[in-house]
Specification:
The chain has about 250 residues and is mainly alpha-helical. It has twelve helices and no strands. Helix 2 packs across helix 3 and helix 8 packs antiparallel against helix 9. The N and C termini lie far apart (about 95 Å).
C-alpha cells in the first residue's frame, strides 16, 4: 500500500501545491499583480534614459574623432561638417574651442583663410587656457596671406600667456628673422637658451640638446653682424629642422 513511486509522489505533491497556489494568485488585487510589471518598466525606462544620456555625452567626442579621421584622409569638406556638429553640441567652452581650432585648421588647409582666421581667433578668445597650437596656426595663417605684423601680434599674445614656452619664443624669433628685425629675433632666441638651461626641462625633452648648438650659432651670427641677411639665417634654421625630422620645441 506504500509502494507509490517517488516520481508519483513528486507529481502529486506538485499538483497539490499548484491547486493551492492558483486560488491565492487569483485573490491578488489587480494592483498587486501589476506591481512587478511597473517595476520592470520603470527599470527599463531608466536604462534607456542612461543609454540616451551616454549617447548624448559621447556625441561630441564621436564628431570630433570622425572629423579628425576625415581630415587625415584629406576629406576636408566632410571634416568641416563633423567639426560643425561637434561645435553645436552643448559641451564645456574649452571643448568647443578645441573643435573650432580643428575646423579652423581644416579651412586653412583648404585655402579658405578668412574662415580659418575666424575660427582660430574664436578658439583663442573662448579657451581660458589655450595651448601652443592655436597661436602657432593662427600666426602661420597670417603669414601665408602676407600679414607678418598680425602674426607677430598673435605670437606676442602667446608668449604673454605662456612666457616659458620655448616653442612660441622660437616661432616669434623666426618671424622677426623673416622680417629682418635682428634685435628682436636675437632677444627671443637668447630667451630659448635661458629656458633650456633648466635641467628639469632638458631631462624631460632631450631633443633640445641636439638643436641648441644651432640656436647658439645663430645668436653668434646675429651678434657679429648687425647687417647680416636674416632671411638666410632663417632658411638655415628651417633646413636644420627638416634634417632633424621634427621640431625640437613642441613639447612646450
Amino acid at each position: 500500500m506504500f509502494s507509490i513511486a517517488t516520481s508519483q509522489i513528486r507529481h502529486i505533491s506538485s499538483g497539490y501545491w499548484t491547486q493551492l497556489a492558483i486560488p491565492q494568485l487569483r485573490n491578488f488585487s489587480k494592483r498587486s499583480r501589476e506591481l512587478p510589471l511597473r517595476l520592470f518598466a520603470s527599470h527599463h525606462n531608466r536604462n534607456e534614459q542612461k543609454q540616451e544620456m551616454a549617447q548624448t555625452e559621447n556625441k561630441y567626442d564621436h564628431y570630433r574623432n570622425e572629423a579628425f579621421k576625415e581630415k587625415c584622409q584629406k576629406n576636408f569638406q566632410k571634416a568641416i561638417e563633423y567639426y560643425t556638429l561637434a561645435i553645436q553640441e552643448k559641451e564645456p567652452i574649452q571643448s568647443i574651442a578645441f573643435a573650432k581650432w580643428g575646423r579652423g585648421n581644416t579651412f586653412r588647409e583648404m585655402g579658405q583663410f578668412d574662415e580659418a582666421i575666424k575660427d582660430l581667433e574664436e578658439s583663442l578668445q573662448e579657451d581660458p587656457s589655450p595651448d601652443i597650437e592655436p597661436f602657432r596656426d593662427l600666426s602661420d595663417t597670417y603669414q601665408e596671406i602676407g600679414k607678418p605684423s598680425k602674426a607677430i601680434e598673435v605670437l606676442k599674445a602667446g608668449v604673454k600667456h605662456m612666457p616659458e614656452c620655448k616653442a612660441l619664443h622660437y616661432e616669434l624669433g623666426e618671424v622677426y628673422l623673416k622680417t629682418n628685425n635682428t634685435k628682436l629675433a636675437l632677444m627671443h632666441l637668447e630667451e630659448i637658451i635661458k629656458l633650456a638651461e633648466n635641467t628639469e626641462q632638458r631631462l624631460l625633452d632631450p631633443r633640445l640638446d641636439e638643436f641648441l648648438p644651432t640656436i647658439k650659432t645663430t645668436i653668434s651670427q646675429l651678434r657679429a653682424d648687425d647687417q647680416v641677411d636674416t632671411s638666410t639665417i632663417y632658411t638655415s634654421l628651417r633646413i636644420e629642422i627638416t634634417r632633424m625630422g621634427y621640431h625640437p620645441f613642441y613639447l612646450g
